[in-house]
Design a protein that fits this description.
The chain folds into two domains: 110 residues, PAS domain (Beta-Lactamase, 2-Layer Sandwich), CATH 3.30.450; 38 residues. By secondary structure, the chain is of the alpha+beta class. The protein is 46% helix and 26% strand.
């Protein structure tokens, strides 16, 4: 069985940013070292970013504690400035979790760099646009020829 230290090692060495926030105080309890490696976020900067992103947390907590289980897990997209000043598209996944010992509600989550996915989606859209264009021209020619045939041959059968 894995110990808390093993879990911590997994989180500390992941390429994703993992975090835990105390919902009562709005303070980050844990931010993995990837926040510094990927975004250059020291603990103070990570807290500032978290505070900016938590505007909807009170309403989410109220709904969740009232029994709305749809508020437990959320995924959203944003952009963070990376270490080199370039904006990085990210996916932020968060889950409300009752603390085992105290019963307090914690918000735990992951910030995932989705540059590769964004680039792949961009290439797919480019490909679809190209294929659409390549089919549009011959189909327009065929459609025009059919319309001419219909106009000039009123007695012709199908």
């Amino acid at each position: 069985m894995l110990s808390a230290e093993h879990y911590r090692q997994i989180l500390d060495n992941s390429s994703d940013v993992h975090w835990m926030l105390d919902c009562d105080s709005g303070k980050l309890m844990y931010v993995s070292p990837a926040a510094e490696r990927v975004f250059g976020f020291n603990p103070e900067r990570a807290q500032q970013v978290a505070s900016q992103l938590l505007s909807e947390l009170p309403a989410r907590l109220e709904a969740f504690t009232s029994g709305d289980s749809t508020q437990r897990h959320r995924t959203r997209e944003a952009e963070f400035e990376g270490r080199d000043g370039v904006m990085i598209p990210v996916e932020i996944e968060s889950t409300l979790v009752p603390d085992v010992g105290s019963g307090a509600i914690r918000l735990v989550g992951t910030v995932r760099d989705v540059r590769e996915r964004a680039e792949r989606e961009k290439q797919q859209k480019k490909f679809a646009s190209m294929v659409s264009h390549e089919f549009r021209t011959p189909l327009s020619t065929i459609d025009g020829a059919i319309q001419r045939l219909e106009m000039t041959s009123g007695n012709a059968d199908e």
